[in-house]
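Ticket #4471: structure output looks truncated?

Reporter: J.K.
Steps to reproduce: submitted the chain below (394 residues) through the standard prediction queue, then opened the result file.
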Amino acid sequence: GRPMSRLAELIEQLCPDGVEYRALGDVGSFVRGGGLQKADFVEAGMPCVHYGQIHTRFGTSATKAVSYVSEAQFARLKHAEYGDLLIATTSEDDEAVGKATAWLGDGEVAISGDMFYYRHNLEPKYVSYFFASSSFQEQKRPYLTGAKVRRIADKGLSRIQIPVPPVEIQREIVRILDQFTTLEAELEAELEARQAQYEHYRNHLLSYDSLAARGPVEMVKLGEYIKLSFGERITKLHDAGTRYPVYGGGGASFMTDSFNRSDEFVISRFALSEVCVRFVPGEFWLLDSGITFDVNESRCVKHYIGQFLLSRQIEIYRKSAGAAQRNLKTAEFLSMGVPLPCLSEQQRIADLLDRFDALVNDISSGLPAEIAARRAQYEHYRDRLLSFPEKLAD
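Returned output as attached by the reporter:
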């Protein structure tokens, strides 16, 4: 038969009769933090972790803090040390309550309220991977309290059962799962590099010099070649449904049962950010906070104009004004200059960029799909690695 994996060999050798499951409260203790506010952060000082950072900044483990407090303040706070698990105990979302990171930094770190450190005698990242597993998610559910903000107390956490195999097995599981996370990070870096490369390529192809090098180019005013079409306001309260996504000037916000657009470039009209143009594939409902456009097809190719607008988002963002939220100055937008080569050249560029777009951005192909598949595979694998036949008491 096939040679056994190192993990299977270790299990066969060290715990052939199964693995003991123990309550977290029996293999460690939870210590509540407190007295640290974001207002206490200083530029340089002693390391600290605020519970919000566990949700947003840290993964399975952390070796460095992202914020600091003064020595005087540090002295008054609770400190976690190397190997402790840092646990966020509140969130608006059930899934994120109890999100944890293993502290692997040099020396102690101060912790805020709404979190615990868990001091234990297990392999640090093994515990951290366990806190991310579906076994932990299922076991914590009965202990969640609170209406809008959900929380878990140390009493509940202490009762959750963790499999405790010999430390060699804990380490081997960490080694295997670390390989997965490294691969995922590499894929994400690759995707970012591709996106940057694509934007660079698009900006180059659509620059006047690059176009002029291939043939005659005319500079025209955007408004003379396109006709704007504003979306229509509907509300989640009255128009929610299940069939079509609803877009304004940003991402999809809710679903509805009718559509008023399909396969269009959408330009933000209200509350602009620096991402103010996007292509929305398929049928969707466009709100009045977004604009689409039509072109005279005998004079220009719609996807060429759309790709041109994608390449000029910063410039479009600058044509907006407002204090609380920036709104598009439509007349200024329409007076933008567009370099137009002949129709066949516009078509060639539009096709090239659409293909490149699909490669980089399409969830059903290319890297995003690969990353999503890896993540699903990893989660399945992690949950399997963290469930053992239970050793029965003699």
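Triage note (M.O.): checked the attachment and the full token line is present. The mean pLDDT is 93.
Status: closed, working as intended.
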